[in-house]
Amino acid sequence: MSAFSRRSFLMAAASIGLSVPFLVANARAQQSGGQSRILVACFSRTGNTRTVAEQIVTLTGADFFELKTTHSYPAEYRATTDQAKREQQQNFRPQLTDNVSNMDQYDVVFVGYPNWWGTMPMAFFSFLEAYDFAGKSIVPFCTHEGSRLGRSVADIEALCPNAALLGGLALRGASDGSIVTASTSAQSAVRDWVGSLRLS
Ligand SMILES: Cc1cc2nc3c(=O)[nH]c(=O)nc-3n(C[C@H](O)[C@H](O)[C@H](O)COP(=O)(O)O)c2cc1C
């Protein structure tokens, strides 16, 4: 985690009254390789999905893993949508820069992504094919601008047939640089949803 996002995480957690020892322990467990049995894996281009992922980490004490591709996406929105569409049409599997070396440790894996052309970005297809999720619970969440979870849950089921899927969350996001998932109403929806899940 960058120094900036670590500081943001600590400030956000402090604002909801968590203790300094908890904050330090939780901040250390931010990347996979921590002690939690819960992992939050996310992909995010403009930060809306990452904001939700960071809130779930704060609420659950989960470890955190951010998918990044070895190839970059253009800064410009339309060029990105064109590239993403080509990747989907070609059923492309982007190479990821990093992997989760301790996946066996996790019983519950939250997977968070922006809806790209009706489903997950292809980076998540690469991620879900790279591990054995048999016996694990997968909890999808996405941000979108109208398509909600789209086909993504069916795609996760097809990629991970032996995992248990827990109810997904679709939250309104944005691609204009604003982080609408940081709003009080969005954060309250995430808190209620996480509280409703059976994570044991
Ligand atoms: C390549 C691309 C494709 C997208 N396709 C869809 C779509 O099919 N349906 C939809 O509702 N939103 C779509 N969006 C909008 C994003 O899902 C939305 O802006 C999301 O909140 C961005 O999340 P992020 O800030 O974590 O990157 C698309 C955005 C991009 C960049």
CATH topology of the largest domain: Rossmann fold
Multimeric state: single chain
Q: Can you identify the CATH superfamily of the largest domain? A: Flavodoxin domain
Low-confidence stretches: 1-10, 13-30
Largest sheet: number of strands, sense, barrel closure: 6 strands, parallel
Please, what is the average pLDDT?
89
What structural class do helix, strand and pairing data support?
alpha/beta
N-to-C CA distance: 27 Å
Number of helices: 7
Listed once per kind, the bound small molecules are: flavin mononucleotide
Question: Portion of residues in helices?
Answer: 25-40%
Write structural notes for this entry:
By secondary structure, the protein is of the alpha/beta class. It folds into two domains: 1-30; 31-195, 3-Layer(aba) Sandwich (Rossmann fold), CATH 3.40.50.360. Helix content is 38%, strand content 15%. It has seven helices and six strands. It has helices at residues 3-15, 20-28, 48-60, 77-89, 122-129, 152-159, 184-196; strands spanning 38-42, 63-66, 108-114, 137-144, 164-165, 169-172. Strands 1, 2, 3, 4, 5 and 6 form a six-stranded parallel beta sheet that branches. Helix 6 links the parallel strand 4 and strand 5 (164-165). Helix 1 packs antiparallel against helix 2. The longest helix has 13 residues, at 3-15. It is globular, with a radius of gyration of 16 Å. The chain starts with a helix and ends with a helix. Flavin mononucleotide binds next to helix 3, helix 4 and strand 4. Residues 44-50, 80-81, 84, 114-118, 143-147, 173-175 line the site of flavin mononucleotide.
